[in-house]
Amino acid sequence: MTKNKMKKILDIIGEMFPDAHCELNHSNPFELTIAVLLSAQCTDEMVNRVTPRLFSKYKKPEDYLAVPLEELENDIRQIGLFRNKAKNIKGLCEMLVKEYDGQLPRTHEELVKLPGVGRKTANVVVSNAFGTPAIAVDTHVERVSKRLGIARWKDTPIQVEKKLMNLVPKEDWTQTHHRLIFFGRYHCKAQNPNCDSCPLFDLCREGQKRLKKNHNDKN
Ligand code: SF4
């Protein structure tokens, strides 16, 4: 992959999804962190169904600490892995209160030390809430990057992230993350990518391979 080809790919995706943005509803960095934590192995749509009530009940870390774990579990029980996530939210809030005076730290290094916050979550938070450029690699970004030959199939999410960072100017990292997510979520889907109507078809060996296979299977 060259920087020129990468730019071409991102320009085309940008035309398809000019409004690509974070789809998790939130009104401050703390809410975004909770929403991203809840979104692991769960759709943003489901998280957005649960958070309006959750965020009106729990406004700050102290509020989450003031209820028993079972009550918090109950408040998020529609979300997959809710027990583990409730435990992590409690742990995260405890650390925020004890070590950060109840405020969310602003750096990636500090964020990844919080319970339940991994590299991807920290990248989403610093880029969306604090304006620090970052490319969070979620399942969509990883799949699309591999299909388009930006990364190799055996690459780990961190390797995919590094390759993207090398190919894209820093000021475009956050927008690249949003564009690749939208492209993966709404076009180059996990099960049925729309290869036959894809504007990136000529640039995508995976898409060409898939269509050829479909054609051969039919004949
Ligand atoms: Fe995805 Fe198919 Fe487009 Fe390639 S051609 S980017 S696999 S939809």
> Segments where pLDDT lies below 50 for 5+ residues?
none
Listing every helix as H and every strand as E from the N terminus to the C terminus, the arrangement reads HHHHHHHHHHHH
Calculate the mean pLDDT score and round it: 95
The main sheet comes to:
none
Cα gyration radius (Å): 19 Å
In one word, what is the shape? elongated
By CATH, the superfamily of the largest domain comes out as: Hypothetical protein, domain 2
Tell me what the structure shows.
With 219 residues, the protein is an all-alpha fold. The protein has 2 domains: 92 residues, Helix-hairpin-Helix base-excision DNA repair enzymes (C-terminal) (Endonuclease Iii, domain 2, Orthogonal Bundle); 101 residues, Orthogonal Bundle (Endonuclease III, domain 1). Helices cover 61% and strands 0% of the residues. The longest helix is centred in the middle third of the chain and has 19 residues. The chain is elongated, with a radius of gyration of 19 Å. The mean pLDDT is 95. The chain binds iron/sulfur cluster.
